[in-house]
Design brief:
Length: 100
């Protein structure tokens, strides 16, 4: 069948979307922890590793840059995805009310 009637039927399972939303939030928190640990290790290498000179300076700069660019980025990203999932379910519910 061609045309608008040929579209797939989409079934939204609220339990599934709620679980995926929670999974995104947990993953964002975990990735944020990994990034924090990574930056901490980089800074530890510079501070406690006995490095000096340009290598220490550049590694320190890299650690600062990584922290500035990555800190809370994944956490914010996962929070945005979770919010978009909530919004999607709300939009589907609204559309359902208009149909039925």
């Amino acid at each position: 069948m061609e045309g608008i009637l040929a579209k797939d039927i989409v079934v939204i399972d609220d339990n599934y979307t709620a679980q995926v939303k929670q999974d995104y939030l947990v993953a964002g928190e975990r990735m944020n922890e990994v990034i924090t640990e990574y930056v901490s290790i980089l800074k530890g290498v510079v501070d406690e590793g006995g490095l000096s000179g340009k290598t220490a300076q550049k590694l320190g700069q890299f650690a600062d840059l990584a922290e500035a660019l990555l800190k809370d980025t994944m956490l914010n990203w996962s929070t945005q995805l979770a919010s978009q999932m909530e919004q999607y379910v709300a939009e589907i519910d609204t559309a359902d009310m208009e149909i039925y």
